[in-house]
Amino acid sequence: MNTAPPRTGPELDASRELEDSPWRRRVISALRLAQFLAALYVFLLSVTLIGGGFKLFGKSFAETLVSSTSNPFIGLFVGVLATSVVQSSSATTSMVVCMVAAGTLSVRNAVPIIMGANIGTTVTNTLVSLGHITRKDEFGRAFPAAVVHDFFNLLAVAILLPVELATHYLERSAGFLSAKLWGAGGIEFKSPLKAILKPVSKCLLGTFKDMLPKTGAGVLAVVLGVGLLFGSLWFMTKIMRRVMTGRIEGALDRTLGRAPILGLIFGIVVTAVVQSSSATTSVLVPLTAAGILTVEQVFPITLGANIGTTITAILAALAVGPVGLTIALAHLLFNITGILLIYTYGPIRRIPIALAHRMGRLAAESKRYAFLYVVGTFFLAPGILVCVWRLF
Q1: Count: domains in the chain
Q2: 4 lies in some domain
Q3: pTM of the model as a whole
Q4: Which domain holds residue 101?
Q5: What is the structure's pLDDT at 387?
Q6: Is residue 1 in some structural domain?
Q7: In the chain, which end has fewer C-beta atoms inside a 10 angstrom radius, N or C?
Q8: How much is the pLDDT for 18?
C-alpha cells in the first residue's frame, strides 16, 4: 500500500498559505453568494407556487378558509400556534402573504394572524434558555433575556389588537402605502422578480394541471411550495449564520454600553441579513446567561429583530403583487407602532422588563414554572382555543 509521506517544513507552510490565501477566501465567498442567491430564488418560487395552488382550489375553499379565520382572536391563536410549531415567523407570514395575494384570505382577517406570528416566533429563544436550566444562576439570567421578547409582543398585541378591531388602522395604513409604493406616480410597478419566476412557476402549475384534477393540482402545488419554502429558508439561514456569526459577536462588542438606538439598529440589520429573528435573539440568551449582557441591553436588540424579520415577507410580496405587499407592510407597521408606543415611554417600557425579571425569579426557584410557561403560552392555550372554536 502506497502512502504519501506527511508534509513537513516548507511544504506544510506552503499548504497553509494556500488555504489562507485571499484567492481561496474569494472563491469560498463567491460560492456562498451563489448558494444564497439560488436559495433565495427557490424561496421566491415557492411563494408563487403556494399562491398559484391556492387559486386552483377555487371559491369554495376560499370561503371555508375565510370563515374559519373570521374571528380575529382565533386568527391570533392560529398565528401563535402555527409559528410556535414551525419556529419561523418568516415562514408563517410568507404563507399568509401568499393566501392574501391569492384572494383566499382577506387583509382584515390576516392581520391578527400576523400578530400571533410575532408572539409565536419568540418560542425559539425561550427554548434556548432552557439549556441553562441545570445551572440556577445562569438560568436566572437567561430566562428573563428570552421572555422579555415574549412580554413585549404580548403587550403590543394587547394594545394594538383592540385598536385594529375598532379602527382598522393597520389595514388602512398598509393599503395606502402599498398603493403608493406599487403604483407611484400612476405608473404600475413591474417587479423584475415576476419576470424570472413566472416561466418556471407557470410550467410547474401547467404540468400539475395536466397530471391531476384542478383541486389535486392545487394541493400538489401548495405542498411542494411549502416544502420548498421551509427548505430554502433553512438553507438561507444556515449560510448567513455561518458567514455572520463572528461578525455578530464583534458588532455586539462595539454596541454594548452605547445608546439603545444602536442595539435597535443592530437587531434590524442582523435579522434582515440572516432572515431569522430567532437566530438573532437566540444568540443573546447565552451571552446574558454568562453575565456579558443584561436584560435591559438585550431588549432593544430584540425589538430591532421584530422589524428585521418583516423583510422576508416584503420580499415574498414583491413576487406576488400589491395585495400581498399590503399584509407585509401591515406586519412592518405593527412592529414599528408597538415600539413607538411601548419603548419610547419609560413607564410602559419598564413593564416587559419587570415581568421578565419576575418570571425569571420564579423559573429559577422552581423549574416547573418555566415548562408550564413555554407549553401553556405557545402550544396548549392557543391549541385548545383553536380546537374548541373548530368544534363549536
Answers
A1: 1
A2: no
A3: 0.74
A4: 30-391
A5: 79
A6: no
A7: N
A8: 47
